[in-house]
## 1
Amino acid sequence: MAGLMEKLGLKPGVIYGDDLLNLFKLAQQSGFALPAINVTSSSTIIAALEAAREARAPIILQISNGGAAFFAGKAISNEGQRAAIAGSIAAAHFIRSIAPIYEVPVVLHSDHCAKKLLPWLDGDYFCANFVNELAGSMMDADEAFFREHGVPLFSSHMIDLSEEDIDYNIQTTAKYLARAAPWKQWLEMEIGITGGEEDGVNNEDVDNNSLYTQPEDIWNVFNTLSPISRYFSIAAGFGNVHGVYHPGNVKLQPELLDKHQKFVSSKLKLDDGNSKPVCFVFHGGSGSSVEDFQTAIEYGVVKVNLDTDLQWAYLVGHRDYITKNIDYLRDQVGNPDGPNKPYVPSPSSPTLSCLVTDTIVDRNKKFYDPRVWVREGEKTMKERVLQALKNFKAVGTI
């Protein structure tokens, strides 16, 4: 059976526009979703891409405001979103450069952009006093990239005004979608609050009723955005919470998404009871059950955000490596095998052959070389991404 790359005519690497729309619609029809992996470094990017390549599946790589600032370097001030803009653009160029060799379709996305972070997304559009000497904003970089290459730099962005008044949320999102429309750039929006805390946006104390979006609000969004562009998705609240909590503390109701689809279908006078006119997004995926994931996917979710679980997975590899080899990591010189006992690497060792000086190096060096311990974090993160791809029924789809 032909995979989605053949069916949709996709090339490996970053996709956008009609290719992205067709991918999401095929995902709905086929009953799978794409994990959206928050990345903060070249290492986490590689771990996610490696998982997608091994699973033969498409993947979404997304960078948050804080993750982008980290990518630029913690020594750089983020005043005026300077570090976040530079870091997100740098990450985007890195992903565009490296993704094709992993031979999978990649969606390049920016994560939650709350009202206070709008200068990061589009500094000049609503924030006339914002000035950044490197680039005005991510969307300015998109526009410049589009003029040169015919595609935007990012496949998609996420604007999160869910904490604001509903009318302001929808109308402001519409203005951003209008700017992105000529580039066929996707825009994700959120209506209904996701609980918990994520990247400096804290909704831990909100009323639980705010976690559940009403069908009328979904229709309002769909009806407002559809005349502007087809390229949008909605993160609707159905009890979602960022972070990981003890079982029973989070009560998801993914069946609400089915009601939303039916409500919008009725407004559009679609007779097919299985129509899924809305592309939904599942926020706060870490810690959720496989049953909740698959129910949400059945009702039209095409993207599932994962961050907290992957932060933990990346740590586990480093933690286990360091605790296992701690005696070799206490000092640069000196180890349990004796203070003067050197390590002579195998002539066939591809990892360490370039480290040899006069054919002998200290044994500890093979343990504290970053290429060794950083790689251990990539391995455990990759396994968690593979688990997500399996849970979301995306394995083998390309």
## 2
Amino acid sequence: MLLTFFQLLWCCSSLMLQFVEDDRAKCLDGTQGSYYFQKGSGEGQNKFIVFFEGGELILGNTEEEYLMNAVEKMQTQQGSSLNRASAFEFDGVLSQDKQENYYFHTWNLIHINYCDGVGFQGYKSDQVNYQQHFLYFRGELIIRSIFDHFMTKFQRAEIIILSGCSIGGVAALQWEQYLTSRVPENIPILFVPDSSILFDMQSIDGNNLLQQSLKIMNYIADDETQVPHSKCAYNYPNQNWKCLYFQNLINFIQRPVFIIQPFYDENFLYNYLDIKCIKDQTLENCQNSEMDFIELVYSKFNQIIKESLIQNSNIGSFVPSCISNCLFVSQLSFSRSWTIPEGSNRTAYQTLVKWVEKQKLNQNYQGDFGLIDQVPWPKNSACAELSLLSQFKLINIMLQVIIIILF
């Protein structure tokens, strides 16, 4: 009886794992694509959040290196559904905390798991055999299967938000045209890319790993298809990979967008630009040459975001000078000490909620919704203290493990 009670608690506070219906829609390793789902209730029963999980693209300067890294990724959760938990609790805007997540906690939640390696897109009918490992590039079929499964409900929705972290945020924008063309025009569809601004830049060692990886992806995974946003694809014939760069893709997005983007995106800096001095959410270990390079990246982020705000009144933003990634699914989105400007009450969560309310009323006024930190790291003290917070959490976890072992 007690076990049943706790099972019910787990069920009702967690998103449950589901598998896509299309047998062809496979992860890199050939397992079936998957997502977590929780049905909305009360006022949220006809409202939807579709969240594309964060992750990294397969990288490689040569086709050989690319396929080798693809094999490595297929053995992780970013390439397989094999070891997904049957249920999972998420933080931030996806949490079930009624007090902190007061606005979204009753909405339908669809968390699309990242397992295709190429950003929730791509299609190759035949598997790729690399050193006796069989790779599947079927990300497009996974998303089509999930969207088609929910399409009848989407067509009766009050509002739909597509969001995602890192490459997941790029995917949210990529699938805009597919969804909006199938849903009545009067239904608000909003986009919230988080830590998702990719742009063309050489890494600190002079290589352009991201660009080269995208080109290889283009002829391996997209040889039989094109990127989901066909308007962008049409504008870049034979160079569809350019549609994964934010400043290119954003020009084709017709619906409102709220950008969440840390100026010091640790995933972009570390994985794509090879800045390895970032540790424990601090730049204190970086040399002068590395800091100079990081400042160039900071300036580029600033330029892209400000140009987007100027060009489109439908765009809002929350851009802190923090070394972080994925605020949308983080407790930091609620933090009153984590605001723009520092010391105000403008948290990421509160700003997002107010922006959503304005968009539901079809009011295209940026006003207080184009928030950009005006000081670099570490002058936003709450961001600078993240390093100490991370170390404290690590110590706390270690103490808990020691207590469990001893007692």
## 3
Amino acid sequence: MVKLPSSAAAAASSVAFNHNNFHNHRFHPRFVSSSPSLQSKSAGDIPFLPDSFSQQEDDHEKPSEVLSSVAGGIVALGKFDALHIGHRELAIQASKVGTPYLLSFVGMAEVLAFGYFHLVLMKLIMVFNRHPIVARCDRERVLSSWAPYCGNVAPKEFQVQFMSVRHLSPREFFEKLAKELGVCGVVAGENYRFGYKAAGDASELVRLCDEFGMGAYIINSVMDRHQDARNMNRYDLKERGQVSSTRVRHALAEGDMKYVSELLGRPHRLLLKIKDWENFTSSSSKQRVSAPKSSLLNLPPKDGFYENCALLFGEREPVTCRVSIDTTHIHLEMDRVDFIDDDYSQNPQVLGIEFGELGVNCV
């Protein structure tokens, strides 16, 4: 068991930003099934833990077969909305000692909502304001890009229904990790909290891992090196200057795409599922097309004009484009007249927009 060795902590704090050129990647979107089944039907499926745990107390060495997808692995604990460089560090540490998994909880908003009208309000907020930072069908691509950092092994995701663990004490939660999931080790950040009412902290995590025979790996937070110290606690009282999904959302809201790229360790990729193109025009030198914001699959940056973006569409090579975002639509302009033809414009498609590092110009 490792209890925050100083060398590992130092290594975890040192991050090299990775800005891959978008021209090196073709666009292959994959929609991930939301089925609660743990047995993946394809490489992109994310296994889920059922709503209720078995009441049988099996031996630690013999985890339930239905939960064997993470048995023997090292799980990183967190929320993993943005898949930012802090999350990547957790995966890197996990990969150093075993097969890396990202374990997170789903269904928290519905569970924490109280009363019918509050639940409706929560759903409306999620629909209009809480797009995920990374589209669900794009998460596998992002995790695959982490493989060079993780011993050439792409981390996998494992999601637990929050309802099944919300009332578990810290000890009960780790008992489930050890006896029912068969986890061999746990990686978490120094500020991670767990268990009912977030009663457990990093020191408790180390103690419980020792009790249940699992390795414990606590790493220092990856700090936001470009954040003005005066605004250190501006976004969330729980934040102390570390890279976080909240900071990524704030940077997107400001339209600061260079800052977003630094936090993510990659350019931000926006996906749209286009059912019907609008304002599709083509001239002798340019092609323009528009899509409603209702087609968004993840969080866009601030309304405005963005240059030096990359448009990714089907099997075609990426092409440079200009993007204009207003209150209702996203407008694209390309100096290439054959990128989207009439056949493409009439059929549902998934479109990718990878943003450059130029700041926003308000429209």
## 4
Amino acid sequence: MSFVTFSRSTFHHVSSSARFFSTSLRAQREYANVLVSRPSPGVALITLNRPKALNALNAVHFQDISEAMKEADEDVSVGAIILTGSERAFAAGADIKEMKDKSCEYLSLVIEYFRIKFPEVAEAYTTNFLADWEVITQLKKPVIAAVSGYALGGGLELALQADILLAAPSAQLGQPEVNLGVIPGGGGTQRLARLVGKSRAMELVLTGRIIGADEAERWGIVRVVREGSVVDEAVKVASDIASKGRIAVGAGKEAVNAAFEMSLAEGLRFERRLFHALFSTKDQKEGMAAFSEKRRAEWTHS
């Protein structure tokens, strides 16, 4: 059995021990700051769990998030991942109580924690601080963020890395870092500008204004779930995705993400190459045969 590996420079077959899925199932770990569950076949639900701090993000919390997400991504039984918080807060930003009295020495300890070299303070602007923040963007499997309550600062930046962002009517989104004398450092300025345009991104970043779910939906940041639980809706969407052939799902995710990095002409060529490459998979043969025979496709993810 073989899988198709998709990259922007090459399309070739690799053995089932490589790339697309891990071949071994591992016992599910327990984490201090996140809860991991399986609400539906093929779906991993990762819940931020620092309720007393409104899920404020610190170094230890983020390591738990990162490791739980990577573990789910490598699990062959998982087809889609959901990241959520509590009803009060998805994540209310960085843990300011932990950071407010800290100096560059504290930042050095954080960087060392993530095994990233941190130069002297005069060179701080050129450091790779927060590089590991991009864990979600590096995952192969689709990620859905289910947001209730506050998603502020780093919390919003975390949610913006997801492939699909669903929000409860209670959601409050913003980048209030300017009120602390800093700016977003985990991708907020870049992702917001691409999502909502320069003027709206500037307004949020330069004023620190917090917007509600309805306004965020009008701006194209989220889809608001007005009936029922946002997590239940996320599970429904994730289950639908997990029921598809995972090679096609992975190719679709890569193609859409390429639109944010390539010109239209480059993106169209990349999409066409992915489309052509999928015709070398067993799932393409099965999917089209099942459609012709009016039956449900039996995906082998190969």
